[in-house]
Amino acid sequence: MKNERYTTRVAVIGTGFVGTSYAFSLLNQEVVNELVLIDLNKEKAEGEARDLNHGMPFGSAMKIWAGDYEDCREADLVVITAGANQKSGETRLDLVEKNVNIFKGIVTSVMENGFDGLFIVATNPVDILSYATWKFSGLPMESVIGSGTILDTARLRYLIGDHFQVDSRNVHAYILGEHGDTELPVWSHATVSSQPVTKMIAEDEMPVLDEIFTNVRDAAYHIINRKGATYYGIAMGLVRLTKAILRNELSILTVSTLMQGQYGLHDIYIGAPAIIDRNGIREIVELNLTEVEMKQMHHSARTLRKAMEPCFEKVK
Prior knowledge:
By secondary structure, this protein is of the alpha/beta class. It is 41% helix and 20% strand. A six-stranded parallel sheet has the order 3-2-1-4-5-6, with helices on both faces. Strands 7-10-11 form a three-stranded antiparallel sheet, with helices on one face. A three-stranded antiparallel sheet has the order 12-13-14. Helix 3 runs parallel beside helix 4 and helix 3 crosses helix 9 (291-315). The two termini are 28 Å apart. 46% of the residues are buried.
């Protein structure tokens, strides 16, 4: 990983809704000074780059252009948002085979051009595609980070804050597991100003927690049914992760990362809190889960593995 550089470059692969929303957020938040957009549709990438450049007098000074895989050589981060999108009625796991094949071509092309930075993966199913990126790239696990449950956790914090009428930034809570239908809320560690959420409501109001989680888990379905895709929330999450890396923040974020015994899991990417620094994943944080939560975590992992293993047999 390049630590001594005055230029910070991010390469975004995929100029769909998520990729362009992420690029727009980077322009507004003064995070990097070089941004290259890569897409099979080069004209689309060029159009997006021109549009973003025209906003630069109102944003942060940076160089933005439509490029190719060779531009990844000097990138600190390659952020992959390309791939088939989730359609109405589809689960994220329905996208496995088509997107693993797409990723094999993308990651191979990036690595063939001498890339030695970090990958951030946002395409769904993000846990499986993060594992695929790690395998196809040959990079150490700390260099490949999936967006995981970073957005689900933000949704949970927002809804808890909305329920109690407090700033969601003062809510601390986590969604672990698959970024998908088997994810789990860790109510045992959810707090508002250090007060446990489970003690802030009466016993007969406890079902409201189930309602909050259901709205978190199904948020993408609700949004896709109404507007066709989700992109603003995940774009903001990706910028938050980018800042944590490039500014060496040592922030704890719920990302998809490789389990090597943590939570009793092995050889699988799944969402969990991790300390993020300039080199990627510094350490996975193991929360003390309840027995029920641990069972849910393992169920989530089994679901991912069941979807993943047949697909990887086909792409070997």
